[in-house]
Automatic annotation (TrEMBL):
PANTHER family: PROTEIN NUD1, PTHR47566. It comes from Formosa undariae. The keyword Repeat applies. Keywords: Leucine-rich repeat, Repeat. This is Leucine-rich repeat domain-containing protein. It comes from the Bacteria. SUPFAM superfamilies: L domain-like (SSF52058).
Length: 202
């Protein structure tokens, strides 16, 4: 299917046994492979993709950086352990939950991102301080020891959950009082909202 001037892949959902797909060098604007549950290899670079849904497959890795126009990415329920999405400068919604992620390289310019779901992975460190438009964040059921939410806009959050991270003691926020009033029910009970890092011995 590569380099065939294709603009629509409607019908690909019927090929549930598909393990390999190459649809690069086409004119695709969206791609939904969520029904292709046996997919292990996907090549979709050099398109016009703004939406990619490849959830519930068996992908061990994913390279989407060539698709810098993406605003929506759902690669949840795969087998991905490391993900570099630093090139997705226009991304608005990211669904990364239920993988094996230990590392995610987010875009350095985070003005567009408003939804991030990275639940049920193996993440130890998450920093979303660059994302001033973030409204929805799910990081529960990871191995997080460091979580930085100081983005200057915490009061705009509509949804936040960091439960079931037993190694998380401090969560860095804009205003600890506000976070205690609004977010306490959605964090691991012993963890504390703080605004500054305490340096022992000073």
């Amino acid at each position: 299917m590569a380099d065939k001037n294709i603009s629509d892949l409607t019908g690909i959902e019927s090929f549930t046994a598909l393990t390999f797909s190459s649809c690069s060098d086409n004119n695709l604007k969206s791609l939904d492979l969520s029904s292709n549950v046996n997919l292990t290899d996907l090549y979709s670079h050099v398109n016009q993709l703004s939406s990619l849904n490849c959830r519930s497959n068996k992908l061990p890795d994913l390279d989407v950086n060539p698709n810098s126009a993406l605003t929506f990415l759902n690669c949840s329920s795969n087998e991905i352990s490391s993900l570099d999405i630093s090139g997705l400068v226009n991304i608005e919604q990211l669904f990364l939950q239920q993988n094996q992620l230990t590392t995610v390289n987010l875009p350095s310019s985070g003005s567009s991102l408003w939804k991030l779901e990275i639940n049920e992975n193996q993440m130890t460190d998450i920093d979303v301080s660059l994302f001033g438009n973030l409204r929805d964040l799910g990081v529960h059921q990871n191995q997080i020891t460091s979580l930085n939410l100081k983005n200057g806009n915490n009061s705009n959050f509509a949804s936040f959950n960091s439960e079931y991270n037993p190694n998380l003691t401090c969560i860095f926020v804009d205003d600890s009082g506000w976070s205690n009033d609004n977010w306490s029910a959605y964090k691991y009970a012993p963890s504390t909202f703080v605004t500054h890092q305490l340096i022992v011995g000073t």
